[in-house]
Specification:
Blueprint (H helix, E strand, L loop, with lengths): L8 E2 L16 H4 L1 H12 L4 E5 L8 E7 L2 E7 L5 E5 L14 E3 L4 E3 L6 E3 L4 E3 L18 E7 L2 E5 L7 H4 L16 E10 L3 H8 L5 H4 L1 H6 L6 E6 L2 E7 L28 E7 L3 E5 L4 E8 L5 E9 L1 H4 L5 H29 L14 H14 L4
Antiparallel strand pairs: 1-13, 2-11, 3-4, 3-6, 4-5, 5-10, 7-8, 8-9, 10-11, 12-18, 13-14, 14-15, 15-16, 16-17, 17-18
The structure holds FE2/S2 (inorganic) cluster and fe (ii) ion.
């Protein structure tokens, strides 16, 4: 599908904003009430990234995705379909699974309390002695489920009863990187970061390189910070690319590629690194030779968990010759992540001050105002 970007911005020293753009007021990063509203109107309503299909390759495999009061059992059924069931027994509400991942050996999910048992589709298959009650009909006691959509090997869920169709929300991305065969990629490494900052600061930090020269000297050397172009602004999907200086290079400690280019990467694409934020909880960074992605999970207004993952071709992961270069890609992004996290945490401290009103965005940060608008639109707020 053609990219439905509404604007194409190329920044340079002559770039001028048509209007003055200001940040959200501090309370959007600190208020418990606004945070609760964000959970209801954003995280429990939108498509959110929970993981990769490769994490549950076989029927009965599962992992949990936990966000505040909700716990979802993401599992694959015998028909190869991925389901996401609320981890809430329909008998008296017990949370059934506690291990973060595993395999349902009997192809069923059993509550440890009174042994109600559900199949992988979430249907109640057995409930001891309940057949003695004439009125009880098992059909009415399936697990509650979230909607599930897979895209390029990623698993998204939506907890709303009537969500916006995935195809509509993700229109600019559908087909965009299909030739790179993302579903075939495998997770080479994962790092979990737990930060003391609001989840929105992570999205904002990711979508601007105004901070790059000071915060990321190495990154700025590999990809000149003024060379950032946005090619997509579509609702909550924002993104663009930066040019890699070194021919055939990538984002590693020495700027060399970490592996061969992914299928379908040719011409200019060999020199581009894409930075896409998919509101509200995914950062997707396709490199010519690998893919980095982050899963953002809020943990209150002041805290966030980030799962950062490096995806490579399986044959590259399995080839010892690439071990060093994969490690270099991991080291580069871990370093860059930590540089970002430090300023995000410092910003969280500052925006909590009674003296912080709003900030004034620079000409390299107009996209951040789009992220803010998406939040305000979702909450039904105007400021
Ligand atoms: S609460 Fe689950 S079987 Fe009783
Ligand atoms: Fe950064």
């Amino acid at each position: 599908m053609e990219n439905q970007s509404s604007q194409y911005l190329t920044r340079g020293k002559d770039y001028e904003l048509k209007e003055q753009l200001f940040t959200l007021p501090g309370k959007y990063y600190t208020s418990e009430d606004i945070y609760k509203e964000e959970l209801d109107k954003i995280f429990y309503k939108r498509w959110i990234l929970v993981g990769r299909e490769e994490q549950i390759p076989h029927a009965g495999d599962y992992f949990l995705y936990n966000i505040e009061n909700e716990s979802l059992i993401v599992t694959r059924d015998a028909g190869n379909k991925v389901n996401a069931h609320f981890n809430v027994c329909r008998h008296r509400g017990t949370r059934m699974c506690t291990e973060s991942k595993g395999h349902f050996a009997g192809k069923s999910i059993q509550c440890p309390y009174h042994a109600w048992t559900y199949n992988l589709k979430g249907e109640l298959a057995g409930a001891p002695l309940m057949n003695e009650l004439k009125q009880f009909d098992k059909k009415n006691y399936s697990l509650h489920s979230a909607k599930v959509q897979t895209w390029e090997g990623f698993i998204f869920i939506n907890m709303d009863e009537n969500p916006t169709p995935f195809e509509k929300e993700f229109a600019p991305l559908i087909g965009k990187w299909t030739d790179r065969k993302f579903p075939e990629l495998r997770i080479a490494h994962t790092i979990e970061y737990n930060l003391k900052c609001n989840w929105k600061l992570i999205l904002q930090n990711y979508q601007e390189c105004y901070h790059c020269p000071g915060v990321h000297p190495l990154l700025a050397e590999l990809t000149p910070f003024r060379g950032a172009s946005h090619d997509c602004m579509h609702g909550g999907i924002l993104g663009g690319f930066m040019n890699i200086t070194k021919e055939g290079g990538s984002m590693t400690m020495n700027g060399e590629a970490a592996g061969p280019a992914l299928p379908g990467v040719a011409g200019n694409e060999k020199q581009r690194i894409y930075y896409y934020s998919i509101y509200p909880n995914m950062l997707l960074t396709p490199h010519p030779d690998f893919v980095l992605y982050h899963v953002i999970t809020p943990k209150g207004p002041h805290n966030v968990q980030l799962m950062c993952n490096w995806l490579f071709r399986p044959e590259v992961i399995n080839d010892p010759n690439y071990k060093e270069s994969i490690d270099s890609a991991i080291k580069f992004w871990d370093l860059t992540n930590q540089q970002d996290w430090q300023v995000c945490e410092q910003m969280q401290l500052g925006v909590g001050s009674k003296k912080f009103g709003t900030g004034h965005y620079s000409g390299m940060e107009d996209v951040l105002s789009e992220i803010d608008k998406e939040t305000l639109r979702s909450l039904g707020h105007s400021i």
